[in-house]
Amino acid sequence: MNEDESLLRTDRGKAWKDWLWVLFAVSFVLLLGLSVFLGRYPQAGFLRPGQLRENELARLLVLNIRLPRLLTAALLGMVLAASGTVFQMIFANPLVEPGFLGVSQGAAFGAAVAIVFLSASAAAVQGTAALFAFLGLGFSYLLARRIRVGSWLLRLVLAGIAVSALFSAGLGIVKYLADPLRQLPEITFWMLGGLASITWDKFWAVLPACLLGLALIFAFRWRLNLLALDETTSFSLGAAPRRERSLMMVAAVLATSAIISVAGMVGWIGLIIPHIARRLVGSDTRRNLPAAMLLGGAFAVICDDLARMLIAGEIPLGILTSLLGAAIFMVLMARGLGKGVRV
Amino acid sequence: MSTALLSFEHVAFGYTPARQIFTDLNYQLRRGTLTVILGPNGIGKTTLLYMALGWLRPSAGRVLLENRPLDTYSRAELGRRVSFVPQTERQPYSYTVMEYVLFGRAPHLALFGAPGKADKEAARQALARAGIPALGDAYVDQLSGGEGQLVLIARALAQEPRVLLLDEPSAHLDLGNKYRLMQTLSDLRDGGTTILMTTHDPEIALTASDETVLVDGSGSVMVGAPAEILTAERLSRLYKLPQGALEIRASRPGLFLRPI
Fold this sequence. Notes:
Chain A has helices spanning 3-9, 14-36, 49-54, 56-90, 103-117, 122-146, 152-177, 183-192, 200-219, 224-227, 231-236, 241-263, 269-281, 285-309, 317-334, and strands at residues 38-39, 45-46. Chain A is mainly alpha-helical. The longest helix of chain A is centred in the first third of the chain and has 35 residues, at 56-90. Chain A is globular, with a radius of gyration of 21 Å. At the A-B interface, α11 of A face α2 and β6 of B.
């Protein structure tokens, strides 16, 4: 190896990468702090601290509406980014996200069923959505194993498309049967995603499942690396690949289904954020998972700030995340997927 | 301590009931040797290796590691004793060599653990023993074939195994890299690591192995010193070569093919 080559091969900016997460964490906390004061009441823009003391309504609004909504947005971004990372590792593919494998459509169908046929209580919607999210994933996985053409990736994508289509057909039927005045708007909210109706009750209802999933994934963050390797390789490294993959998948789907049961279908965060985190801090999930969680939380909070700020009404959150996410995705695609990313 | 590190006792294995690869395999891997498993393509060399790894389980008989059945070891226990270098490996993400070699520390860590300073030191030593001490900061997807193979070996060494299994490590290497690989492996053997590797290249068995295991499709194997096992007659029959195409010169270990 000559000198030029060795220079090329050396990762020069390594030390600062170890501290990048501190920057992310500080920016995230700042962003959260700022967002509490951001809104359209009493005036569009920032709330002055003085107004909090004087204006009773402003104080109530911040405490009972903005705060739970903000925390849910942060949780949403963290969960989707962490779950996206898990899926991209388990399937050893950077283009996978929970939505591709029938999870999102399954959850949407489950929620619609709960809204129309069961009591539309938060608990019923959350439980049914979670159940169908799991069913969607399991069905896609089993189907992919039975398909006889193409690579594992192609089979998974095909199975995911088929299962998602099945569930959206089911969703169509449920919508057709739904009460157009009471139930249909509630289902439509699902398709667009949004946090306008978040209350403390809803936040507390989904928090345990989200925290449990996130805690499991976070604790497992280094070992996630092993799950992206060939099965025989991770077995030889002392892992139990099938068992560990299932554990991580269940943790990811648990958290994802809980959060989308209150937030609706918010796309693209789970795909794009892990990707950006990988580019910024490297492929080791021990570093890029925490980075993805912080970036995902920040991305969701920014999108939600825009959703409630841009116009007098409310822009559905899913529209904004898709818009921004897809734009970023196109730029990344055009610039190549990054070092070592093969599809 | 017995000299047998791994023993296969009356092992049978087949991917389908109709096609049995092994019917009554009895073989003991001797501690401290570089042993080569030789045989034509598709005869069951990798199957034998996978059974030694515990990845495949025999349908009858048993495999013992240090006199204890392989399936009584926990996953981590086995990972600390047996390591494996696959022929090729898909690398979906762009890790640094150091990060990649650290994966070998997994069996030494708790389920929710991550490598620390001592593990980094172990990984550095593994890189040095594999002969690539300066490669730690390179990216695994930018290596040459020979370097890539050595990185996989370094990762396996980071497990600090009693036995190192390698599947066709020389298959994609040119002459020079093949030579350096075999040099590294025999250095490791001299350092006390027991090595069991497959190859379809009789020359490697003849020149580099302490013991040769010939998988000949009979349902078992032949084991012995390479010069005893590898006769021109036997190899010609096994590889379906025309008579006289193969000559093995006893005076200078080596194998020569001449076109006829």
